[in-house]
Amino acid sequence: MPQYGFCGRIAIRPYISKDKTQSMDQNDFTKGSIIRNVLRLAAPMTLAQLINVLYNVVDRIYIGRMPENAMLSMTGLGVTLPILTIVIAFANLVGMGGAPLCSIARGRGDQEDAERIMGNSFALLVIFGAALTAIILLFKEPMLYAFGASAATFPFADAYLTVYIGGSLFVMCGLGMNSFINSQGFGKVGMTTVLIGAICNILLDPLFIFVFGMGVAGAAWATVISQCVSAIWILRFLTGKKAILKLRARYFRLKAAKVKEILMLGLSGFTIAVTNSTVQTVCNTTLLAYGGDIYVGVMTIINSLREVVFQPMVGFTNAAQPVMGYNYGAKAYARVREAIRFTTIASAAFATLMWLLLLLFPAFFMGIFNSDPQILAAGIPAMHIYFFAVFLMSLQATGQAAFVGLGKSKHAIFFSLFRKVIIVTPLTLFLPTIMNLGTTGVFLAEPISNFLGGLACYITMMCTVWRELKRKEVLAAESGAIIDGV
Description:
This protein is mainly α and about 475 residues long. It has one domain. The chain is about 80% helix and about 0% strand. The chain has 16 helices and 2 strands. The protein has helices at about 20-25, 35-65, 70-105, 110-145, 155-165, 170-180, 185-210, 215-240, 255-290, 295-330, 335-360, 360-370, 375-385, 395-405, 410-430, 440-485, and strands at about 5, 10. A two-stranded antiparallel ribbon has the order 1-2. Helix 2 (about 35-65) runs antiparallel to helix 8 and helix 12 packs across helix 13. It starts with a strand and ends with a helix.
């Protein structure tokens, strides 16, 4: 909120441009319908997540249709996924930690603190990006073999990873800083950012892979160049006139207290991504042992389809976070509860619809990536098992969004670890060994974790966050009644 000074009876307020005032009013989430506020952000952010999936999915579609070594190339790309997920984990650590804090600071009217959070977040992304590039390039060979590469698939995995990691700084800045555009309420701008990169990737992929004959390395070059374009677009917006919160060089100097806040809250998104990387590694190595390279390729396709299901849902629940955080900072607790309620219903409906489509048309979705009869024979039964009860993922996504949006990182971190580390990883290693389940046991671990993890996260959120909001709402109402009575 702008500050006012008084000279006699004349109020003096700092000059704020008309366009910026309109943006601030429009993005005041304490006004208007909660559902409309969420949807205004969710429509572009969900579409942005769908478009973002294209970065990796389009690569895999083109690679799966290469005239030579398509299956080995697809499997090699799948082996790199745990490492790419680690890069995303660090982007989430900063972006998903700093952006909700910005929303809370903006909600209480402290714009300077919000900009300081964003500046520190950008500096952290640059530091992490440079460090990851050096470390992964130095140890890429042992990492790839540890993550499921075989002698046959290593050359393809190495070709993709070397190029991708060389441009990881752009990936980090693009993914991490786009959250700060969305947190200010500029969902359409955030969507445009992703759309620009995705269009570049779609156009460059066939050029580099087929025309220039670069294979999997061409796919990596297309992705890195596209992410570079996205990162430039983001930085231009955040330093331009239309942004409510600007990226200012004077806030790049790290402050220990702010860094701690950002990293603690971002640990939830970081933990989700790191545990995803752990599960991908365990799945790849276990499938390689029980089924060979073909099943690692099947898991690569299933992971691609999982992104199509999960990422739009993440986009929707992330869209609700700024609305929850802003209203929580403004002490509008009833509106926070309404946002949680609507997010639950909408995300569950989407997840259920996607589950039914995958259940009814598995051959179609598998065939988008590779129509090899061996892949289809192994992949369709695996899909039916893996995606069973996938709609329960929506409960975990909503619970996580509520915890993170309200700054309660410890709960979010625990449930990230609970589902992936405590449930999925042990089951992936144990189930294949009993009753000769083999590869079936690997795919069975996912629906079990969706059921146990999703319910546990959502029930805990209702017993903690929901009750706290109701209590604060009652106290606020009683306080208001006393003031009115006086």
